[in-house]
Structures are given as C-alpha cells and as structure tokens.
C-alpha cells in the first residue's frame, strides 16, 4: 500500500476498507484498434471509480462485431492496460466465446412473443423520419435473413446518471423496437452488453457519454429481463471537434506503451484531477494510487464532451464544450 505524500480530503461517499466487495465495475473495449487517448479515459475512469470503492474491476472484450475486429487488437489493448498499471481482477471474457448466453436470452424473449423479424432497410427508416416506427411489429415476416427486433414494452425516456444527473432521451428513441440480432446473424450490441452485465454481476458502469442513449435501451432491457440494472456514470467524451469522438478515423494516435506517464497524467487532468499535484508524481503505480485516494465523483467534469488537442507527444490541451 502506498503512503500518501500529502494530506488528502476526507472521503465520505465511499465504503470503509474491509467491507466485502459489492462493487463490480468493468471496462469493455471493442478490439477494432489500439487504445487511444479517448479509450484510456474510459478505462481509467472505470478503474479509479472501482478501486476507490474497494471494488473489483473486470475487462470484457467486446469482439462480437467480427467484421470490425482487428486481428491482434485485443492482445494489444491488454498489453497497453498493463503498461498503464490497469490490472484487472478476473479472467478477461470474450464476447465471441459467449454466443450460447446470448442465444439463451434471445430464445427467452422469443418464446415470450417479444421478438419479431424486421425487413426494413436503413434507407426506408431514414425516409420515414429517421426513427424506427415499429413498422413490422405485427407483420409475419420470415426470420430467415432478417434482423430481429425486440418489442419495446418498457420505454425509458429519462434516467439518473451518477455524474450528469437527470438525462432525457427523445421519445421516438425511447419507443423504438430495437435490434437484438442483426440481419447478418450477429447479436446486437444492446443485447450482448445487458446479458454480459447481468451474467458478470456488474454493479457499476462507468463509461463515455457517447453511450447515454444506449443506456436508456439497456435499462429497458434490464426491466424486460427482470434484473436490477447497474448504476451508470458517464464521463465526458474526448472529442477531436464537437460531435466527433477521438477515433482512428480522425487520427487519434495509439497511446505509447513505453512511456505511459504523459498520457496517464493528461487523462487524469482531463478527468478533473489537480494537474499541479499530479505533476510531481513520477511512477505509474504512485499516480494510480494517488488518484484512487483523492478521487471524488463530484470532482469529475460535468460535461458531455471535452475537446482534446494533442500539442505534442506529452502535452494536451482541453476545452470543455
Ligand atoms: N464496447 C463499447 C465501446 O467500445 C463500450 C460498451 C460499454 O461500455 O457498455 O464503445
Ligand atoms: Zn421493420
């Protein structure tokens, strides 16, 4: 255990040491490329929130969308997490190896009459106003080569986020029957995330604010499956410009495995940690231990997006939007 170098604010919102872990958090990257600064934020925020609550932190590889999976990316992500001191507490699970779980839940929803095939193309949906109007709900379309949608029996148009407070979701999105199995036969993100969060007994989800709308759908699926949902907290999304998250497409570079300190310090400043204090710390272990000790959810920036400019390899500039 690290000895803190300075005195730290009292933490009243966290359980005492020695309490059995009732907190299970996770980081769920899609292995479509290396970790970049944006994904480091999500990894780091979920890790620190878990550790500050004396909880467990799991890593789940979301490699369900096989056409987007890049060979070797999953291993590379794990190597990067280790280089950044972010060690996970249980064996990593891979969605590609869990089809039986997804099939089981899909069968359950189907036998309850809550799933139907949809023949609508993206273009048709766009022409009808951009939202799915549950067009195929009562049509008896063939299952073969069609997407499967779940009847939205529990529309959620509002929920409470741990950082952002009340989040409202457009009514049309809340009412949409959403896809649980794609036309190409792949299980859809909404389904697998909820099945995995239930199966892994995740109690807290900390992730980027690009997933606010999916959260409403996930909450409704938890209801449909009669499970208590985890608590959700969405940290600001690192964007290259308003509305565009850092990604390979806009040339967010992979973060450096050999020199983790600059990106780690920048990620901590992004998350609202005191940049003067952290500038004096010079190992990964000390930085994470310090961050976990001083962490308060209320110090996280309450923004949906923060613009990031990388000035050089070790210097970043942030602009809340
Ligand atoms: N795999 C998703 C992503 O990389 C994150 C899913 C989640 O955290 O629920 O965007
Ligand atoms: Zn349809």
TrEMBL record:
Signal peptide range: none
Superkingdom of the organism of origin: Bacteria
Keyword Aminoacyl-tRNA synthetase: yes
Gene Ontology MF term list: ATP binding; glutamate-tRNA ligase activity; zinc ion binding
SUPFAM superfamilies, alphabetized: Nucleotidylyl transferase (SSF52374)
An example Gene Ontology biological process: tRNA modification
Binding residue positions for L-glutamate: 26-30, 62, 189, 207
InterPro entries: Glu-Q_tRNA(Asp)_Synthase, Glu/Gln-tRNA-synth, Glu/Gln-tRNA-synth_Ib_cat-dom, GluQ/Sye, Rossmann-like_a/b/a_fold
Documented EC number(s): 6.1.1.-
Cofactor mode of binding and number, as noted: Binds 1 zinc ion per subunit.
Sequence motif 'HIGH' region, location on chain: 29-39
Protein residues bound to Zn(2+): 118, 120, 132, 136
PANTHER family per record: GLUTAMATE--TRNA LIGASE (PTHR43311), GLUTAMYL-Q TRNA(ASP) SYNTHETASE (PTHR43311:SF1)
NCBIfam families with a match to the protein in the record: PRK05710.1-3, queuosine_YadB
Function: Catalyzes the tRNA-independent activation of glutamate in presence of ATP and the subsequent transfer of glutamate onto a tRNA(Asp). Glutamate is transferred on the 2-amino-5-(4,5-dihydroxy-2-cyclopenten-1-yl) moiety of the queuosine in the wobble position of the QUC anticodon.
Recorded family membership: Belongs to the class-I aminoacyl-tRNA synthetase family. GluQ subfamily.
Family annotation (HAMAP family): Glu_Q_tRNA_synth (MF_01428)
Name of the protein in question: Glutamyl-Q tRNA(Asp) synthetase
Name of the encoding gene: gluQ
């Amino acid at each position: 255990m690290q000895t803190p170098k300075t005195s730290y604010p009292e933490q009243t919102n966290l359980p005492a040491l020695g309490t059995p872990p009732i907190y299970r958090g996770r980081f769920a990257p899609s292995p479509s490329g290396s970790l970049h600064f944006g994904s480091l934020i999500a990894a780091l925020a979920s890790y620190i929130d878990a550790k500050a609550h004396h909880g467990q932190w799991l890593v789940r590889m979301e490699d369900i969308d096989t056409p987007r999976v890049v060979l070797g990316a999953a291993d590379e992500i794990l190597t990067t997490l280790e280089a950044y001191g972010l060690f996970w507490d249980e064996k990593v699970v891979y969605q590609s190896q869990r089809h039986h779980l997804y099939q089981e839940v899909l069968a359950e929803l189907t036998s309850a009459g809550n799933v139907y095939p949809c023949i609508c193309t993206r273009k048709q949906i766009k022409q009808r106003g951009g939202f799915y109007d549950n067009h195929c709900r009562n049509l008896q379309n063939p299952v073969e080569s069609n997407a499967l949608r779940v009847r939205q029996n529990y529309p959620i148009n509002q929920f409470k986020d741990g950082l952002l407070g009340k989040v409202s979701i457009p009514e049309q999105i809340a009412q949409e029957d959403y896809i649980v199995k794609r036309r190409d036969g792949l299980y859809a993100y909404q389904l697998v995330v909820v099945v995995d969060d239930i199966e892994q007994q995740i109690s807290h989800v900390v992730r980027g604010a690009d997933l606010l709308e999916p959260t409403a759908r996930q909450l409704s699926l938890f209801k449909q499956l009669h499970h208590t949902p985890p608590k959700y907290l969405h940290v600001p999304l690192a964007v290259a410009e308003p509305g565009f998250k850092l990604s390979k497409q806009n040339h967010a570079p992979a973060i450096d495995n050999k020199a983790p300190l600059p990106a780690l310090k920048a990620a901590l400043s992004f998350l609202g940690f005191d940049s003067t204090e952290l500038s004096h710390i010079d190992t990964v272990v000390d930085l994470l231990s310090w961050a976990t000790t001083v962490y308060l959810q209320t110090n996280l920036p309450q923004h949906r997006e923060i613009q990031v400019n990388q000035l050089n390899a070790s210097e970043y500039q942030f602009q809340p939007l």
